[in-house]
């Protein structure tokens, strides 16, 4: 377990299971927010999600694991403003930005934890998140995706049948 003394939740240190979690919850996660925003990205996601949702039965609720600042949630809201949107995000600053959009219920937590399953969603998904999770930890995220869904699970990720570590902006073991 890795403790980050700069993060305090309920007077306890935020504990991370992996170095990758600490990395994304910290300064690099803040830099990522600046790089990955803008209307062009949202518009591309509107096009992608329109095709995907068009092939499904009408959805009422959607949960994203790893929402960052909420770009995917904005795209989904533009497609259907009646969707009940929820998300988890490990970086508190990104979670606060997503909350400020006032379109989704945002929780700050790691998707490696077993997440509460009282509320199920028509669709659970990740987009561009799993590539940053160590391959040995992927099952925990898959378990959450399935446990929190009552209909569909969507994984929008790069794929390689054999996980490899890729140098990511000068960092090792941060992209798989």
The overall pLDDT average reads 86
Number of H/I helices: 6
Strand fraction: 25-35%
Determine the N-to-C terminus distance. 21 Å
Radius of gyration, in Å, reads: 16 Å
Structural class comes to alpha/beta
* Reported CATH architecture: 3-Layer(aba) Sandwich
Query: Which CATH class is shown?
Result: Alpha Beta
* Strand order, largest beta sheet: 5-4-3-6-7
Order of helices and strands: EEHHHEHEHEEHE
Number of strands: 7
Describe the structure.
The structure is a single chain. With 176 residues, the protein is an alpha/beta fold. The chain has a single domain (2-156), classed as Rossmann fold (3-Layer(aba) Sandwich), CATH 3.40.50. Helices cover 34% and strands 25% of the residues. It is built from six helices and seven strands. A five-stranded parallel beta sheet has the order 5-4-3-6-7, with helices on both faces. Strands 1-2 form a two-stranded antiparallel ribbon. Helix 3 (39-54) packs across helix 4. The radius of gyration is 16 Å and the shape is globular. The two termini are 21 Å apart.
Features:
single chain; 176 residues; alpha/beta; Rossmann fold; five-stranded parallel β-sheet; two-stranded antiparallel sheet; 6 helices; 7 strands; globular
Write the layout of secondary structure elements.
Layout: E1 2-9, E2 12-16, H1 19-25, H2 27-35, H3 39-54, E3 61-65, H4 71-79, E4 84-89, H5 92-100, E5 104-108, E6 121-127, H6 138-147, E7 149-156
Parallel strand pairs: 3-4, 3-6, 4-5, 6-7
Antiparallel strand pairs: 1-2
In short:
The protein has 176 residues and is of the alpha/beta class. It has helices at residues 19-25, 27-35, 39-54, 71-79, 92-100, 138-147; strands spanning 2-9, 12-16, 61-65, 84-89, 104-108, 121-127, 149-156. Helix 3 (39-54) crosses helix 4.
